Amino acid sequence: MVTTTPSAGWIDRASNQARWQILTAGAGISVLAALLMLVACRRLAISNARNRQLQAQLDRDKQQITNLQVEKSVLRHALNDSEARSRDLVRLGGAMIAELDDQGRIGSVSAQMADMLGRAPSDLTDQLFEQLVSEQDRSRFRESLDSARGEENLTRTDLALIGADDSPPVRVCLRLKTIKDPVHGVTGFRLSTTN
């Protein structure tokens, strides 16, 4: 039986070669892992920056919405106050106020109609205002409507309105003002009558 023993240099050479292969593979894997971590950290930083920008924009939008809601509330309150003031002025003025469409139909009329003619305002909605005018003054009323369509100023005429039942006609001073729309032109009339 023959036995051989390797020399010390041969074992050291194989050991050194294995060590360098392990070190090279470990260094390569470490460098690759470090590069992957850098890429992942960079993406995370970009994502975090984008999220911060979106959150800041969201905060600005929320503040703007809050400001618009406050402004809307203030405007609604001012509109309600203005409407209440207008209603109070109409009631205190004692005149009958009405709004007509472009054909002369009553859209709305003040409560003074009941006092002046003995007719409820709700009963007159969508009726021609001309039907409230006495027969002999209807042509003058139509002329007033035509005149108001062509003028910017108030049109004034005196005529008689027919009361409810058999009550005598009520002599009034009628003032007409057109309601104009820049697109459609004359869309209706506002009128007031006083005894």
Summarize the structure.
This protein has 4 helices and 5 strands; from the N terminus they run αββαααβββ. It is an alpha+beta fold. The protein starts with 7 loop residues before the first helix and ends with a strand.
Please tag this protein with its features:
20% strand, 195 residues, alpha+beta, 5-stranded antiparallel β-sheet, 56% helix, single chain
What does this structure look like?
The chain is an alpha+beta fold. 56% of the residues lie in helices and 20% in strands. It has helices spanning 8-93, 112-117, 121-124, 138-150; strands at residues 96-101, 106-109, 155-161, 170-181, 185-194. The chain has a five-stranded antiparallel sheet with strand order 2-1-5-4-3. The longest helix has 86 residues, at 8-93. It is rod-shaped, with a radius of gyration of 45 Å. It starts with 7 loop residues before the first helix and ends with a strand.
